[in-house]
Each structure stands twice: as structure tokens, then as C-alpha cells.
Amino acid sequence: MINYNGNLIPSGSETLEVSNRAFQYGDGIFETIIFRKKEIMFFNEHWERILEGLACLKINLPFKKEALKNTLLDLLDVNGLMRQSARMKLYIWRKPGGLYAPEQQDAQFLVTAEQSQRKKIQKFDRVGIAKTVFLQNSAFSHLKTLSALPYVIAGLEKQERKFEELILLSQDGFIAEASSSNIYFFNLEKRTIYTPSLKNGCINGVSRRHLLKSADKFDLKVQEIMWKLEDLTADLSVFTINVAGINCIQKIEMKKMQEGTEGIRILEEIFKW
């Protein structure tokens, strides 16, 4: 079952309208939400990003916070997923009408849910720098919009070049993010985690929001940085993190980084995986 505009219907029974603005223009946002240990993970951070995204795109909010939470839990329940780990996708887009300039600001939405397994931490040593995609800062580059072409093309390049991960740069050559995750550089001695500034065109991910809020509780500092590849030093361990989990990068191109075991332990404690 899926939830389409507040109604539970069988998956596959929905019909795509030709006038659908998500399909025509990518006019909306989406969230990937993890349910684990009978809890919606990082729900407050997801809600914060939904509010920011819809406000930026000038789309009216289709539900209140508690109503969304109940919608997610009801969908998990009807699909028999309340005792399992699950991945939910929430799509919100503007109702039909108009060409590029819309005729209204009200929203439609769709929620899907499926069983998922906890992602195991992986250590990558085949990591490259993207050659086909360069990110650009804009008023909405930090949002998770329905227009995800840079990440689709990055995913294709990663496959073609047989890398385990790909790092995306800004148009000015600054490190921005990984192909589907924010990226972090951890100096254990200084108890400092460095992550690229949003000015580099990266998405303001849920993991990034959670880390910025939680670091103080673990005696850590988080600094937003504008670094190029030559700024990376061998005393850093490197991680990519999204709501699904953590990966540790051992080598970028030919540059070796720290092994990262202690960093993984600390990050798992912060994110409660």
C-alpha cells in the first residue's frame, strides 16, 4: 500500500496525470526516511528540511507535523513493517496548473514504504573525483528537490569508472559532497569534524543537520570549510554519511587517508545506529 494525498491505495494503482508538475518540471521536494528500532529516525530534522524546502519553492504545506508522523506510522502498520526496518520515500509537489510559472501553490504528496536492511559500514579505497558534474550554489542547491540530474549523472560516472564512491566538486573546485551523501573529514587529535560549506552547492542533508546539532554533546567541534583536494592532509579520516548509514573512505584517487576505526565508533554513537 501507498499513501497518495492522504488516501491509502494499493501500490501500482495510482495514475500519473500528464499535467503533474513533479513529472513535467521537477517542481517539488522529496525525503528518504528510515524507520528502525520502532522509531522514525531523525524525524525532527526531516520536518525542518521539509519546511525549508516548501518555503523556498513557495509551495503550501499539505499537512502538520503530527499528521505527517501519523501518516508515516499508519503506512508502516498497514504494510506490516512496524517490527522491521523500513525505508520510506515522501514526495511533495505543486498541484497542476500553469507552465513554468505555476497557477497555484497548493501541494500533492505521495508516501511509499518498503522493508530495508541496516546498511553495513563499508570501507572504500576506490574513490574518484567527478569529471562530468560540478555543483553550483543557488537559492535552492541545499534542498533535496525532485530535479536530481547531477546525482544521476554522477551515479552513471561512478559505474562507468568502476569506483565505489565519487566526490563532487563545486564549479570553483572546492570539495562539495559525495554522490549520494554529505562528506566529513575527522581530525581525532583536535576532536574536530570538517564538512563542506553549503556555498559549495552541496545538499544540507539530515545527517549534516543532526551532526551540527549534536557535536557539542560529544565534546566535538564541527567546522564548515572551503577546501580543495590539495588541502586534505594525511591525519584526516574521511566519512560519507546519509540517513541510511556511514561509509569510511580509505583513499581518494591516490591519496591515502586515516583508517577511521575510532571515528566510526564515535559517529555510530552520535547517530545511534
Automatic annotation (TrEMBL):
Catalyzed reactions per annotation? L-leucine + 2-oxoglutarate = 4-methyl-2-oxopentanoate + L-glutamate; L-isoleucine + 2-oxoglutarate = (S)-3-methyl-2-oxopentanoate + L-glutamate; L-valine + 2-oxoglutarate = 3-methyl-2-oxobutanoate + L-glutamate
What processes does the entry annotate via GO biological process terms?
A: carboxylic acid biosynthetic process
* Origin superkingdom: Bacteria
Q: Which InterPro entries match?
A: Aminotrans_IV, Aminotrans_IV_CS, Aminotransferase-like, BCAT-like_C, BCAT-like_N, Class-IV_PLP-Dep_Aminotrnsfr
Which cofactors go with this protein? pyridoxal 5'-phosphate
Keyword annotations for this protein, in alphabetical order, are: Aminotransferase, Pyridoxal phosphate, Transferase
Does the keyword Transcription belong to this entry? no
Q: Name one GO molecular function term.
A: branched-chain-amino-acid transaminase activity
Keyword Transferase: yes or no?
yes
Record EC number: 2.6.1.42
The pathway it acts in is: Amino-acid biosynthesis; L-valine biosynthesis; L-valine from pyruvate: step 4/4; Amino-acid biosynthesis; L-leucine biosynthesis; L-leucine from 3-methyl-2-oxobutanoate: step 4/4; Amino-acid biosynthesis; L-isoleucine biosynthesis; L-isoleucine from 2-oxobutanoate: step 4/4
Recorded family membership: Belongs to the class-IV pyridoxal-phosphate-dependent aminotransferase family.
Q: What is this protein called?
A: branched-chain-amino-acid transaminase
Q: Which species expresses this protein natively?
A: Marivirga sericea
